[in-house]
Please model this.
Amino acid sequence: MSAVQAGAGAAEATVRSAEPLLEVDGLTVRLRVEGAQRSVLRDVSISVSPGEAVGLVGESGSGKSMTARAIDRLLPRGAEVSGQIRFGGADVMALSGAALRGYRNQVAMIFQDPRAHVNPVRRIGDFMTEALRTNLDVPPGEASRRAADMLGQVGIADGARRLRQYPHELSGGMLQRVMIAAALLTEPKLLLADEPTTALDVTTQAEVMAILDDLRREFGLAMLFITHDLELAAAICDRTAVMYAGQIVEVRESALLHDDPLHPYTAALSAARPDIAQTAQRLAAIPGRPLSAFEAPDSECAFAPRCPHAQDICRAENPELIGLDGGLSRCARALDLRGRLLPGHLLPGSAEGGHADA
Amino acid sequence: MSTAVPLVTVRAPHRGGRAVGMLRGTGPAGVVSAVVIGVATIVAAIGPLLAPYSPTLPNLALAFVGPTGGHVLGFDYEGRDVLSRLLAGAQSSMLGPLAVVIGALLAGTLLAVIAAWRRGLADAVISSGLDILFAFPGILLAVLAAAVFGAGLPAAAISLAIAYMPYVARVLRGAALKERSQPYVAALEVQGASATTICLRHIVPNIMPLIVAQATILFGYAMVDLAAVSFLGLGVQPPAANWGVMISENQVGIPQGYPLPALAAGACIVAVVIAFNVLGERLFEQAQARQ
Amino acid sequence: MRLAFIARRLAMLIASLLVASFVIFGALYLAPGNPIAALSGGRSLPPSSLRVLEARYHLNQPFLAQYWHWLSNAVHGNLGISITLRENVTTLIASRIWTTAGLVLYASLIILVLGIGMGLLGGLRPGLLDTSVLVSSAVSAAIPSFVAAIMLIALFAVKLRWFPALGNGTDLLSNLRHFTLPAFALALSSLAIVARVTRSAIREEADREHVQTAVSRGIPRRQLVRRHILRNAAIPITTISGITIASLIAVAAVVETAFSLNGLGAYLVTSAQDKDLAVVQGISLVLVTAFVVINVAVDLAYAVLDPRVSLGSRAT
Model:
């Protein structure tokens, strides 16, 4: 066993706490698209401990949403899944019948576009209490009472009246709060939040995020929070994982992610976000476009074509995840680049003297 | 570095050469349908010349005789060669729907574009008017016209065009409204182009794929309705050759055990209508995908 | 919000009927020659009859007054006299209306049961069943009613002798036998359209995101299909069923003629050939009213099924 692999083993042990709630192990998913099998996830491994919030960050096509869907068993027909997903020790992919329903009660998903994800012809009350009445045999009156209470918790007043309304009578922000409330009603242990605020306008985003964060902590729920916004994930999650081209490329404690990234892609994401406190002559951007999993060759590092630090070793083979300083990085040059991946120091031609604080 | 930046690129109007591309995009079913339609058109154009025997001269001695010798489809109720009569009948069977479609499209496009361009009161008035026109099913209007003006193809064709016009206008109005709100229209307005120019040279060409799709689908419906009116004896009058008329005049043969003439005419109608329906639907999907 | 929609729709109903009746009445003046010539249908009548016609139609009064008289008479059930049969148009209509109504009803049942049924099967179970539904509906949608009529007569009445070819029946049971082939001829192409729309509506709903939400909460499949897919698909399915049933009213004329049924449609056609204008106007009024009423009923059903509807008319 090489030093790097030993380091990786030790690092993974420290990064993962004891007895994780959710364990994703080597998840590889291929979807049938237009007759061909396309890779969307490649060897994804991540774990979430009880009460822990883990962020999953990536651009379009990185596979972050697909990971959540795989965990929730919402993949489309004809999907090939290999690897393991374990929840509370049980193999999720093998569940069926009552056990599967029980799993679905314990894992609640919050979707991105609330207006598309709530049935428009049924009342809010019907939507919220459906799972309670069907799966948990809660009598309708009691279910409505709990729903109205939960609405109050997410900041919607006059819950009883709202329950009688239809989705089109509520704004996007309110509808998302309803979705969050509905998710919490079955008392789940894990929340899968798939870009819950992306479809909302900026001020509403902040409100809804605050509610989500507060309630999660109050109920002690674990959360897998999916977003394209690195800063947002870092703000509310304990750990953050970054995905690129269907693979995990970095896992790090959120506090360290911004100032001490372990992977060039993470550093580039941080740098690309405009900072209101700094002036720059030009917005930093990563050249090229993000690759989807099926476009990335298995023979080299997927980020190499766009990476300013790429060298021959990066194009020799697809790097493994290496453990470093309590985090994980899928960079062949991770050890070399240690400490040099600070924002502003990596992009060729990025504003010299543009940053106020180097 | 130049600071001049074009805010909006004006979309160039479509050209006719795209027709081939559109056709190829409809898949094998669409191409087969187009071929069928092409054949029917050719027959409609030169049918009477192609007919091996006279389509109109009766010979009662041969009434309802089955297929023999050079008469592959046998004889009809008046002893005329069925195949010849079918070939000759293609003309009125295809020309009638053509007139209906042209009429409905012209009127419908005009109203749709005016309603979409003016919006406001004009749109409300036109839309309400169209809603009211929906109250008249095509066949009913054609029968009413026949009662008033006498039986015949022109009255039937005009009434069907009027009855179809609201359907065309409704679909095109939606598309025209979408075009209207595109940035290039605003750009053209700012540059001083007149309403007529913008509508005729930009909006209409850009919704042309939808217009063509509508025309194709409509042709199928018009063919069915006109054949029905002729079948009822209120459209094309016998002894003129027409597929709808042929069904009605040869219907008597069916209980007597001679269904071929009537069924042959029916088959022609069905084949052409299927072709128009299939092609029209494919074109419609294509047009919608572009939007 | 929905009340406003319903009120608007009812107002459109009245407006449609007024305009339709205006057009039907106005046909009198569109005809070549003067109204008297149109009413007598090209026959030469004795002066006494002509005077009776003039008085009945108030021909000496302004156009709008004539229209008003005609319309108020019609609403009270007086539709004039047939010039060929010398009888009350209303009586003539009444004796034939049940034939047409029965035919349309029978055909509607076929469309709803077979059309929606086949669409459901095709939509919920992909595979061979679905493909066969698609193909058969594509073909039958293109078969016009009168072509279907002669095909059915040739096969089932003449060759197989299962059903009679022509005419009305005498009692309920024989009526069913006589009306079966006509009902199928009438229903065939509409059935195909309803089956296809049902199938694609169900397919579309099954792919919608809100169904995913329900799946992610572990809602059992049967309940999922019933409460989320079918309930939502009911909107376009009801709309297309209503529209096609309304269109049966006009096409019934063709089928009645083909099967020699003694219905309103066939009578309309013969009166048009005979140029018996009073009868044509009377029957047109009845048929248009039925057509408009059914369309409005469809709109109202849509408003009930879809809580999102506000002021606009239903989208097609």
The two ends of chain A are 40 Å apart (CA to CA).
